[in-house]
Design brief:
Layout (H helix, E strand, L loop, with lengths): L1 H46 L4 H26 L5 E3 H16 L2 E7 L5 E3 H22 L7 E8 L5 E7 L16 H12 L3 E6 L3 E7 L3
Helix pairs in contact: 1-2, 2-3, 2-4, 3-4, 4-5
Length: 217
């Protein structure tokens, strides 16, 4: 009886794993759809407003929600994988950012291909890049679409990931400290970098340039 029970458990184990994976994928799909709907509602509301400050606040909220929606949509398309190709993941996210706010983002990767990281890690990197793109739109390009941003991914000899984000806007004020700013976007970036146990630096180099270095995932 004991041997039969154990054999039955062993036979059912693959089915349980498959059912769990399907449930996770379905959950990602539903979350992505719900968040996309919320972002679309904010977009419709924003388009009806004349107040530039309120429109910008709604755009920020819309893009933050859309960024999380992209994560779940991507995971759903890739069978809710625990690890994802960071370069491919970001390219898809940047295409959506370009379409939403008019910042033409290009990504160059110099490191192992594919650069596999956990879904949790990729999510935080995507949010950081999204916030820096919003920051470039507001401050580097004065809220006008048509700007450009260059994002770089590389690994150093110690295996640390180096993420760079550079725009061609007006640049940063002298002695600018991203950790001391009042804007929510850079506070989010600083908080996520700290969570990843990384470092954040910035400078003006033909525009604003941010460099983030984080330990290997």
């Amino acid at each position: 009886m004991t041997h039969s029970f154990r054999a039955g458990q062993a036979l059912r184990a693959p089915e349980v794993v498959q059912q769990s994976a399907l449930l996770v994928a379905e959950n990602d799909h539903r979350i992505a759809n719900s968040l996309s709907l919320a972002a679309a509602m904010l977009r419709l509301q924003r388009q009806k407003l004349d107040d530039a400050v309120v429109r910008q606040a709604l755009l920020d909220a819309e893009m933050r929600i859309a960024s999380i929606a992209h994560v779940h949509a991507y995971l759903h398309r890739h069978d809710s994988a625990e690890r994802v190709d960071l370069g491919n993941f970001l390219r898809e996210a940047l295409a959506e950012t370009d379409a939403a706010i008019g910042i033409r983002c290009s990504l160059s990767a110099d490191g192992p291909a594919p650069m596999m990281v956990s879904a949790r890690f990729a999510t935080r990197i995507a949010i950081i890049v999204n916030e820096l793109a919003l920051n470039a739109l507001k401050h580097g390009y004065g809220g006008s679409a048509g700007g450009v941003a260059r994002i770089g991914l590389a690994t150093d000899p110690d295996g640390q990931l180096q993420l760079t984000f550079a725009d061609a806007g007006t640049g940063l004020p002298a002695n600018f400290d991203p950790g001391q700013g009042d804007g929510l976007g850079l506070r989010i970036v600083t908080s996520l970098v700290e969570e990843l146990e990384g470092t954040l630096s910035c400078c003006s180099d033909g525009g604003a340039r941010f460099t983030i270095v984080v330990p290997p995932d």
